[in-house]
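Weekly puzzle thread! Below is a chain. First person to post its structure in token form gets bragging rights.
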Amino acid sequence: MLTVAVAVVLGFQGMRVLFASITWYLRDTRGVGTLDLIPYAVAPFVAGFLLPAATRRLGLRRGLYVGGGLLAAAALAMQVSGDPGLLFWAAALATAAFVGLFPLFLATGRGVVVEGMLLGIALDSLLKGLGGSLDLAYRSGWVALVVAVALVSVLVWLLPGQAEAGGLSGPPGSGGLVLVGIGPFLFVEFLILQPQGWIAEVGGIPPAVVPVWVAFGNAAALWLARRYGGLRWSGVAGTAVIVAAVAAADGPAALFAPLHLLAIAGSGLVLGALVPATEPGRWWRGALAATGGTLLFLAIGLAYYLPMDLRLPMTQPGVRIAAGIALLVVVVFAGRDRVEVSTLGPAAAGLIIVAAAFPLLGEAFDRPAQADPTGLPVRVATYNIHSAFDTSGRLDVEALARAVEASGADVIGFQEVSRGRLINAGTDLYAQLMDRLDMPYGAFFGTADPVWGNAIMSRYPLSEVTTTFLPQVDTPLRRGYLGAVVNPGRGDAFLFISTHLQHVNDPDAHDVDPEADLYPVHHEQLAVVLDEWGGRTPAVLVGDLNARPGWRQVTEVLDAGWVDAWEEAGSGPGYTANAADPQHRIDWILHTPDLVATDAAVIESTASDHFPVAATLRR
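Winning reply:
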């Protein structure tokens, strides 16, 4: 069981890093087209089938050694590699090794696999919780290295005992088809049930409490699998709760939070239904079904995220619901044999709950202090953080934080903030930056889905938070307006707005004339921004407008009464994008005429594909 659990921890990290590397390294850094990314994504999952095929000749012992050795080597490579290209290949190898090991683990017994996977999921979430939602591969320092080495050492040490199971085996009859349900199961786990940012944002649960919340849910999943796993009604009941939680994944919090806790507990019943009993000589059924299930997981993930880049006839909520329904259909036709699970898993889950609670102690004694209420002047900034992936394609939250600190901002508007997306390795950047920057006040608005959008962070109190979706105008990515009143004291409260406009409408037209391509979209999006503003003063509007000085859409904003802080107090062209070769000014700080910018600066940093911009404002 422990072998399976450790393999799950390392394999799940590999899959998250693979999704992130494909998106931010291959697509954004290397320029691989969106559809051209699909073979890179599919190959590691298909390659996983090679391990059980080779094991037929090697024998189970050698097959486990090969698969476990490859997974261990890949995990160590991910931990020590500072190069995003090597990180991608290591993640691909870890994914292939884990996909190949899964059907081999079936030979050790159904209960071992169910309990091992559930314990592995709990350990995986614990490690992310203790790391502030960062995977080990994205954490530097000796602590992360020691933990990674310890996990790899435990896997290698346990493999000989796992290999005593005997020969390859697989599910009889049509039982292997049930394993295909692993695809939607993994999708729901990765997207909604385990990511801390989604739970915090939609469930309204403080980020420091979320790891304990998840640990309780995962412990309940282990207990339910031991007591009721495999019973006729249990898998269907667990799946029904998961479908309800998926349907409520956009909120409200009062509905989503209790459904989420029930769903994460019910996942133990669902997994008990999805993992079939096996018998010797049917290895290929398990291998094909397991590979098919993980490929289905990938297909659902692609269906969920591709509509953010391409105009496709599906929506993200629709894909979520479809995944839940597909899982329910599979479980309805699953077998009804009781799962024999030991008491070790629930006992270990208790220790996980205790470990998850440790960060709460630090939270109680380390609360950020608000700035003194001295009124204006105030330093404001804007920063498109590119989901914290730098110009080389590597996730680096610390580099982002240093760039913000260099700006000296008291209030900052962020764009492209992720709170747990799979393609961002499940990282809650909002909570990470709030903690790292010691900002006591913040607001977040998910636009493309509940966990990706705009944010405001401040050293001064925020009130009157307003959120509004901007018109898509037939573009694939939904964007939004986030406003809040900042109160620096002495009667100097002002409205602060963070927004992000569309970057491309028609790619071919954009290459010829980007202003003409974007103006029809920006005109409608800015109309909503100006309407929400409503002429209130004093006010500050910041964001990535994806528009350059002199463009018609910018002129419309200036004509509405806004003042460009850079023209007023900046020096030079003020280029902010692309950070690797800056040639355009598209990130803006604008203010109403009753404020004055005394200085403005661009902070050069490769922590994102944009530079942050800061300005000091006074009456």
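Puzzle host: Confirmed. Bonus trivia for everyone else. The mean pLDDT is 91.
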